[in-house]
Specification:
The complex is a heterodimer of chains A (about 110) and B (about 110). With about 110 residues, chain A is mainly beta. Chain A contains no helices and eleven strands. The chains are: A mainly beta (about 110), B mainly beta (about 110).
């Protein structure tokens, strides 16, 4: 079945450590997105990519980095510069275009040890 | 960041009741309005994408309307069922970028 796979489901980070969240899609979508959800907040955009080898910062990109070397994959690295990384992270993809619905993964919950 | 407001924040209805909630968004530079349903322990699922003023879309017992001139959209659920319990998110995209700006959602609980 086509879809978006995020892994791991749960992730723990030690202080000062970088961690990478995986997002893979087999929907042949050009565009991919990373969102963060905190309690009582809407989904906030971290980074997005409309095409391979290109990506743009969203509203809260500080302390995060991404790469888009393959169409299917859009990993998110939470760096040690992100001082409050505890959150739920969602990856999404769609056909390029602002009127195309986004398809979401099941999310990764990141916590600090 | 473009402000998208959803109301009410939460709603509790009985099975069979009809209900509706609101999404407000900036009326300038409008491109598209999305509605998603997010059930607990699942991923958000797209319900509708609307682009034209006056658009009305329907999917089973759920329908949505769009007013781009005044910057609001309504989501209606007719004859609510317990399986409709979820958080309903709206998101707005403008002419100035590809990103979606999400509201905080309306949490709906339907009890038998």
């Amino acid at each position: 079945d086509g879809g978006i796979t995020q892994s791991p489901k749960y992730l723990f980070r030690k202080e000062g450590q970088n961690v990478t969240l995986s997002c893979e899609q087999n929907l042949n979508h050009d565009a991919m997105y990373w969102y963060r959800q905190d309690p009582g907040q809407g989904l906030r955009l971290i980074y997005y990519s409309q095409i391979v080898n290109d990506f743009q910062k969203g509203d809260i990109a500080e302390g995060y980095s991404v790469s888009r070397e393959k169409k299917e994959s859009f990993p998110l690295t939470v760096t040690s510069a992100q001082k409050n990384p505890t959150a739920f992270y969602l990856c999404a993809s769609n056909d390029r275009g602002r009127n195309q619905p986004q398809h979401f993964g099941d999310g990764t919950r990141l916590s600090i040890l | 960041i473009l402000n998208v407001e959803q109301s009410p924040q939460s709603l509790h209805v009985q099975e069979g009741d009809s209900t509706n909630f609101t999404c407000s968004f900036p009326s300038s530079n409008f491109y598209a309005l999305h509605w998603y349903r997010w059930e607990t322990a699942k991923s958000p699922e797209a319900l509708f994408v609307m682009t034209l003023n006056g658009d009305e879309k329907k999917k089973g017992r759920i329908s949505a309307t769009l007013n781009t001139k005044e910057g609001y959209s309504y989501l209606y659920i007719k004859g609510s069922q317990p399986e409709d319990s979820a958080t309903y998110l709206c998101a707005f995209s403008s002419n100035s970028g590809y990103a979606l700006n999400f509201g905080k959602g309306t949490s709906l609980l339907v009890t038998p």
